[in-house]
Amino acid sequence: MAQKKVLMVIAPENFRDEEYREPRAILESRGCAVTVASTRPGPAKGMLGMIVTPDTTLDKVAAGDFDLVVFVGGYGAETYYDHATAHAIAAETVRAGRPVAAICVAPTILANAGLLRGKRATVWESQSRALVAGGAQYTARHVERDGLVITADGPTSAGLFGEELARVLGV
Q1: For the CA atoms of the chain, what is the radius of gyration?
Q2: What secondary structure letter does DSSP report for 78?
Q3: pTM
Q4: CA dist 78 to 35, 82, 127, 152, 157, Å?
Q5: Which domains can be identified in the chain, with CATH numbers?
Q6: Handedness of CA 26, 105, 8, 87 (dihedral sign)
Q7: In angstroms, what CA-CA distances link 117 with 41, 67, 127, 144?
Q8: What DSSP state is assigned to residue 96?
Q9: Closest by alpha carbon to 149, among 106, 109, 92, 102?
């Protein structure tokens, strides 16, 4: 079986450390290759102080190169709420029959990209209205999977989210 390739999209500032760290560790422990992208090169800083240097910038990403695309939450994820390139990557991933995922406030990105219409989804509670406005059925569960879309509600669910990501990839 070929190694699964995962793209994790983080904000240049204020991504949520554990929502990045825990799913990445789970996916890598199952043999996945993880690439990290952000809007700009150079170190990105998490809300709790973690420093991550992205491998690439979002404008250089080809969605077709990945088996799974994950949007990491934290306040900084607001950067992608109305980001055309982020929306295009998410939409291309789903059109290609591959899963897309988001945790914490990041499911708002998927809602704004039009990918949650008619889907069950969850999000950090403060963003529940944004999901409903995007046509989602907000479930308030810790982790929700509906077809190719996986969403989670926040940092305490990062491990469960990572496990669901591995499951959807079959690793």
Answers
A1: 14
A2: G
A3: 0.98
A4: 21, 8, 11, 16, 19
A5: 5-169 (3.40.50.880)
A6: positive
A7: 33, 22, 16, 14
A8: T
A9: 102
